[in-house]
Amino acid sequence: MKGIALFFASKLHEEERYKKPLNVMVKAVSPFSDGIYIFRKVLKSREEVEEALQELTFKPRFAVFFALTGGVSRLIREAANLIDGPKLLVGYEGNNSFPSVLSAFYKLKKSGQKVVLHFMEAGNREGKGELEKDLMLCRGLAALAEEKLLILAKRLNVEQLRKIWLFTRNLGVKVVVKGLSELARTFSEVDGREVNSCLAKISNIFVFSQKEDEGLKKAVKLYLSLRKLLNGEQATSVTLECFDLLKELGVTPCLAYSLLIGEGVTAGCELDLDSTATMLLLQKTLEQPVFMANINAIDTERNTITLSHCTAAFNLSRRKPELLPHFESGLPLSVRVYLREGRVTLAKLTLSRRKTTLTVITGELEKSGAISNVMCRTQAIVKTDKPVKKLLHWLPGNHLVLVYGDHTETLRKLAVAVKAQLSPP
What we know:
Blueprint: E1 3-8, H1 15-29, E2 36-43, H2 46-54, E3 63-67, H3 73-80, E4 87-92, H4 97-110, E5 115-120, H5 130-143, E6 148-153, H6 158-171, E7 174-179, H7 180-189, H8 192-205, H9 213-233, E8 237-240, H10 242-249, H11 254-262, E9 266-268, H12 273-286, E10 291-299, E11 304-309, E12 322-324, E13 334-336, E14 342-350, E15 357-368, E16 378-384, H13 388-391, E17 399-404, H14 408-417, E18 421-423
Parallel strand pairs: 1-2, 1-3, 3-4, 4-5, 6-7, 6-8, 8-9, 15-18
Antiparallel strand pairs: 10-11, 10-17, 11-16, 12-13, 14-15, 14-17, 15-16
């Protein structure tokens, strides 16, 4: 997947006037030339834009527009309508560049396009890497068009069907629905030799008791089954109703999910389409593994949220993760990952026809491990930046998605791009 960088200037301005900012902007985007074709000729008319695009030997999946001068808002909008995918609009302080960018940004956003706004401060005062973050965001949004979500379910209710429609409309992700019976059939066809071959990989990653051997084989068999279904459907993400699976096959998807997420596949628990959408967005735009967790407890005095779940990616663990019986059912197998301490962002996109929201909470992960024996196996305590008592009424259901780092500004821009309202306000 490749994007294109275009530079725009008004016919009223002489080249000498924008030569310096042009050099600065080319230098800023050059480190990303592997994924972005830099068209160095300055464009001053729609005809020049069309000629530039005709020269390409590929179809751009996203675009970066640099306004060198004012008077280019309309030209930027015309170019945006000729290129599919999200657009990153970049302006700077001089030559009325930023007013043109703001005008184009507002009108493109209003027309329904996915747009991201970036202001290049003099001397890069916005911080090293800020342009890179916005480029990653734009590239990640473009990557959604290539995503395909596999849903495995016995049946879907009206609310779930509505969420699937929003998944496609708001994010551009393709969705395919298969019955849980399809997974059961594939599970029954997995060869024992495939399972034994995969066990060597598992023993290098996880710690587990020998008494879990039979359960482990069953859990590995499920992982291989999901891999086969994903490959067969050419899908890149999956979600299923976990508790229906427990009854159907007597095994949990926890180990399979831990492996899949660690390998870059988005895998959402409990057919939670909002959390699956959040995981997909964060994995694509931040290029990091994520952890979908239950909100198990809050402590208003210590200002903490306790999170737990059994499906954390194995590569999030600061030490060798453990395989244990599932907390609620005792079935094989759950994953205990030891999350490292550090800054984190907790997020949740809630898809809705009326008002889609993106909840963003930041804080410090203080502790992880075997904190309690009455909750799911991977556990973490996060001290939030804002008073947890105030956050309580903004929590979007029982799940949040954790990612390392403070990504408030990136998620603010993401919310604009996917037409979501930031929460808490």
